[in-house]
Design goal:
The chain is an alpha+beta fold. The chain has one helix spanning 23-77, and strands at residues 2-6, 12-16, 97-103, 106-108, 122-137, 147-152, 165-168, 172-180, 185-189, 202-216, 222-228, 235-241, 243-251, 258-259, 266-274, 302-305, 318-326. The protein folds into two domains: 20-77 and 242-329, no CATH class; 83-239, no CATH class. The model is unreliable at 289-311 (pLDDT under 50).
């Protein structure tokens, strides 16, 4: 550093001062910098863990709620289509709502049954009804006639195997005996029309809709599937991932298997969801449980933490979402 000052004779003298930081000053500044970096890293890690925990909690609640809401819509529509009591069998099912208890999940894509030591059994739900609009009538139908000309509004068409049960405006269910596939499409029904339906009457496919768990072989995750007949041959939709258990019950309580009759007023649903990964802040908790839900408990909607009686913990967060769905049909 260059410094100028006046001497005794009042002349300007240029002095050179090239001194830097001392070793002690460097060590002190380095220690202070390291403390600041360590504090910032600690705050970052704490905030990251907090964000992960909050994100997992939101995901758990939203997954269970979305799953229950989708089921609620389909359960409320079960039986729509003019289904007669006990006089039909749609793909092996003859009740609007069928609860199949203790089903061991299948492996996807092999279709093999999963190992009971790896996955717990859960209930499956089979619903019958006119869930999908397929088309409309071209002309008004004639009472006593068993033929009708239709126009498709869906990319999927009727057949005489698993897509042969149809409903006109949700009032009369019929079975297709034959189909004229050339334009125009003419359906021949096994039973004649019991009333006259106007032009452009909506036609629904009466099908079996299934909710069941599957285990993905590549990742080992448990997923919840919605399986319908609107596909070739079926349409599988993944509703949610990391669903560990699913149980249903009838209210008033009936002897299993639960199939809906005039005495059943509502269905109780229990969905157990799990976080996608173990939570750092949940170490020593999250004990895996073969969940035992009290299906006889007629309570309001509730969300509970699930803890088990096992010794081993896995660090996963879980939520149990229960809901009672009142029937409409």
């Amino acid at each position: 550093m260059n410094i100028t000052k006046k001497d005794n004779n009042n002349y300007m003298v240029l002095l050179n001062d090239n001194r830097g930081f001392t070793l002690v000053e460097l060590m002190v500044s380095t220690v202070i910098s390291m403390m600041i970096v360590a504090a910032a890293t600690t705050v970052f890690n704490v905030q990251k863990r907090l964000f992960t925990t909050q994100d997992q909690t939101v995901e758990l609640q939203s997954t269970a709620k979305i799953t229950t809401d989708l089921m609620e819509r389909d359960i409320r529509e079960a039986g729509f289509g003019g289904l007669p009591d006990g006089q039909y069998s749609i793909n092996g099912n003859s009740a609007p709502i069928n609860i199949v208890n203790n089903v061991q999940p299948k492996l996807y894509p092999s279709g093999l049954t999963s190992d009971p030591e790896d996955t717990v059994p859960s209930d499956a739900l089979v619903l019958l009804g006119g869930f999908e609009l397929m088309g409309t009538t071209v002309n008004a139908t004639i009472m006593g006639s068993n033929t009708v000309e239709i126009e498709y509004e869906s990319s999927v068409e009727f057949n005489i195997s698993d897509k042969k049960y149809i409903s006109f405006s949700g009032i009369q269910m019929s079975e297709i005996a034959s189909i004229t596939s050339t334009s125009p499409v003419i359906l021949t029904l096994t039973d004649p029309f019991s009333k006259t339906f106007p032009q452009n009457t909506p036609i629904y496919l009466v099908e079996d809709l299934t909710y069941e768990r599957e285990r993905l072989e590549d990742s080992g995750r448990d997923v919840l599937r919605r399986i319908s007949r609107i596909g070739k041959p079926q349409k599988k939709i993944t509703i949610a991932e990391n669903i560990e258990d699913m149980q249903f019950g009838c209210l008033p309580v009936t002897t299993p298997p639960c199939s809906v009759s005039s005495d059943i007023t509502s269905i109780s649903t229990y969905i157990l969801s799990r976080s996608a990964s173990a939570s750092p802040s949940y170490k020593g908790k999250g004990r895996k449980n073969d969940i035992v839900a009290d299906l006889n408990d007629d309570t309001d909607d509730d969300i509970d933490d699930v803890y088990a009686s096992e010794e081993e913990t896995d660090g996963y967060k879980r939520r149990l979402w229960s809901k009672r769905i009142d029937l409409q049909q």
